[in-house]
TrEMBL record:
Domain of life, per lineage: Bacteria
InterPro entries assigned: Puta_zinc/iron-chelating_dom, UCP006173
A Pfam family this chain is assigned to: CxxCxxCC
Name of the protein in its database record: YcgN family cysteine cluster protein
Amino acid sequence: MSSQEWESLCDGCGKCCLNKIIDDDTDELYYTNATCKLLDRDECRCRHYTERFSYVPGCAAITVDNIGQLDWLPESCAYIRLYKGRDLPSWHPLLTGSKDAMHAAGMSVRGKVVCETKVRYLDDHIVLWPLLDCD
C-alpha cells in the first residue's frame, strides 16, 4: 500500500487529536473533549499536517508498522477497523464521497470539542462519545 493510499484511509474524524489521560493507578485510558491546538475543529483536520511534528513534537504518526501498538485509537478509527479485519463503516468518506455522513452520524469531533489552550484541568473534560463505534 502506498503512503497516499494509507493516508486516504483516514476518515478525518479528529478523534486521534483529542487529548487523552491515562490513570496512573489503573492504566485506564480516558478521552477528553480537548483537542490539539493544531486541529481545525470545524474541518476536523490538522492545520499543519505535514509540519505537525515541528509544532507538536509528541504528535504520533499512524503507520502500517505501528498501528497494532496504538491502543489509544478508538474502535471507530478506519485504521483500527481494518487492522482488526473489519470493513470500513458505511459513513466513511471513501464510501460516501464526503465527510457529511460521518458528521451526521456523530462520528467526528465537530461541534463537540474545545482547544486544549482553553482548558485548565484536563480531567474536567473527560468524555465517552469518542468510544462510540456505529456500523
